[in-house]
Amino acid sequence: xxxxxxxxxxxxxxxxxxxxxxxxxxxxxxxxxxxxxxxxxxxxxxxxxxxxxxxxxxxxxxxxxxxxxxxxxxxxxxxxxxxxxxxxxxxxxxxxxxxxxxxxxxxxxxxxxxxxxxxxxxxxxxxxxxxxxxxxxxxxxxxxxxxxxxxxxxxxxxxxxxxxxxxxxxxxxxxxxxxxxxxxxxxxxxxxxxxxxxxxxxxxxxxxxxxxxxxxxxxxxxxxxxxxxxxxxxxxxxxxxxxxxxxxxxxxxxxxxxxxxxxxxxxxxxxxxxxxxxxxxxxxxxxxxxxxxxxxxxxxxxxxxxxxxxxxxxxxxxx
Length: 319
What we know:
Elements (H helix, E strand, L loop, with lengths): L5 H6 L13 E5 L4 E4 L11 E5 L5 E5 L2 H10 L20 E2 L6 H19 L4 H12 L9 E3 L14 E8 L4 E7 L3 E7 L7 E6 L7 E3 L17 H35 L2 H6 L4 H11 L4 H16 L8
Antiparallel strand pairs: 1-2, 1-5, 3-4, 6-9, 7-8, 7-10, 8-9, 10-11
């Protein structure tokens, strides 16, 4: 479950329990090459490609990440030819593709999370009740269908909000409890637990901005377990699912652009940059955005916005 949702954790820069921000995950290019996307949203540098060595085995010609080449030079791994040069070439990162699949592992995780939610916040769980769920939690039996079902988006069960959130809500039933669960504001489930409770409760965990969890009492909701997602609902479900994914993608894109702008602005203000390029700040800023592989139409827009923000007393990257 954790592996499947890593792209969302990365895109939203979720602060994790150990204090780290985001997470790295594997993705593929259009050509089928597997790459690692770092927690900062960058691609891991490609390995060094050595083209030639001298008689002592030191590198005379190679291609690789600039920082890696500089490190090798400091270690003495590069040949000491006085004519040796390191040429920096700016390359635009390739588009990478990934998928998030709601498979058996995710369903097991959803069941386990619902069980922990009930035991931790709602009421005691008898040992026999927990043991009945254990085979499905451990993967010996399927959790999907019997205990966990994907659900259509419903304003009562899954009220709309931004920023994205995790949300679990318990609804008492006759000799059982339903738990609705929304993960990353995207994937909606309902869990049926053979556990008796008497109080509804909603737990909300925001994922960006202030992330303090909130508890509230929801209004009663009638849950028809036998009609989670009818065939007639599929088109509407997929459209809404796509809209929510697009919102996360746009958030990640805006966050990355702000970081590129901040880094470019800070470089443009360095004393050595100001001494080397004796022009106004925005000329240097535009040059640094080019180094960051920002395309010309976007640079023009960022310059206009940057000037407006400066005139309003804001930093140019506070887009």
